[in-house]
Amino acid sequence: MGETQKGKVARKILVVAMYVCSVLIAFFVSFTMPFAWYFRVLVMLAGLVLNWLAISLFHELGHVVAAKLNGFDTVKFSFLIFGYDKTAVKRFSVRFGRGTLGETDVAPTGVENIGKRYVRVVFGGIAGSIFACVVLTIGFIIGVLCKSPVTATLFCGMPLSYVVLIINSVSGFAENSDGEILTVMFADDEAEKNAENAEKSDNEIEDNDAKKEIIARKDAIIKLLTITALLKEGKTYGEISPELFETDEGISESQQTAFALVKLRRAEELADNECIAYNLDMLERSDYIDGECRAEMLCSYIVLGIDDKVKEYENALEYCDDLSGAASMRTLVYHAEYRGDKQYVKTSLKTAKKVCKTAYFKGDGRFNEIMLSRISE
Predict the structure, then answer these.
(1) Residue 102: enclosing H or E segment and its boundaries?
(2) Can you tell me whether residue 252 is helix, strand or coil?
(3) Which of 70, 95, 223, 353 is the most buried (most CB within 10 A)?
(4) Is residue 236 pLDDT above 80, yes or no?
């Protein structure tokens, strides 16, 4: 699913053009109000912001409702500065600078029909966005029909909501969007048949490679979901079948990063230093590492005893508040043990192990408990 540089530029130009057009529409609608220009601008901006927030909120709620109906748990949910995280010690949080308006993370319960159920969860977000667009459109039409310029202007962000819907729902506009995920999940069966036919006829080698890439990406999604479900049931990374950690060429970089992280934890549990070093190298070359990755890399470098890398990743301690309780405690205890702070290790180790026993992902909690057991009080 490669894309030329010209294609990327054209896509960005199209996205900018859509945003500009939607704002211009709102601007012209504001001229219908018989008020001072500054009041028009104020109402227009309020309409744009409120409409944008509305579609973002309904999008995330769509995922939540779909998850509930399809055997998935909502593990994390955030909107604006508010957050809820079942894996954290403090489940509710208020924090600025989350990076996104809203985000929803889900975890499957059981592995049966996991792919089909996940498709419905992903589509739930699109359905929520469509619902928001319909409501905003109705509000705008009512404002026009009732000759209420203020009402119409408050809903003037309606075109902007459609732009957001298109960008998230149509594959190609944004990486890892709902539309891109659905394209991969839906295209797989037909793509696999076409790929086999192309191999037999030796036609369109490039198209065949693209189809194989789609297959590889769907397979990676299913495997990551299955690993998550098994961790939730109580299996550790080392107890999960190694076949689930194997991937084909062609998966996205974000998927490569996700697999490198879970394989790193598996290698740590199995004390496979060579595999630890390999997956650390994979993460070092990724543009998708987050606080969770950096914290795990810090622990791994402590295990390997690479001092310069430990110093480089010590800033990962800043992310501990955002990690699961088990991972957070292990990172802090590992770093204290590395510094030689025996008093902290002694006072925190038992607490850390208790936190591991109550972890939402039972398997991940057991993994962290195993790693903590290798530290002597």
Answers:
(1) strand 102-108
(2) coil
(3) 223
(4) yes
Q: Which amino acid is at 128?
A: G
d(CA 39, CA 42): 5
Name residue 83's amino acid. Answer: G
Separation of alpha carbons 288 and 286, rounded Å: 5
Contact at 8 Å (CB) between 123 and 178? yes
Tens digits of residue pLDDT in 60-81? 999 999 999 999 999 988 888 8
Q: Where are the chain's structural domains?
A: 5-174, 290-377
Instruction: State the residue for tokens 């419905």.
Output: 120
The structure's pTM equals 0.82
Overall average pLDDT of the 27-47 stretch: 74
Backbone angles phi, psi at 330, to 5 degrees: -65, -40
Residue in 257, 254, 266, 260 with CA at minimum distance from that of residue 366: 266
* Closest-CA residue to 100 (of 121, 76, 117): 76
What ranges in the chain are assigned the alpha helix state H? 5-30, 37-69, 114-145, 149-154, 158-169, 178-201, 205-233, 253-269, 273-284, 291-304, 307-312, 325-339, 342-357, 362-373
Name every residue whose Cβ is closer than 8 Å to that of residue 57 and which is 6 or more positions away in sequence.
79, 102, 132
Strand partners, 77: 84, 104
**Whose structure tokens read 């001072």?**
36
Q: Which helix (H) or strand (E) holds 107?
A: strand 102-108
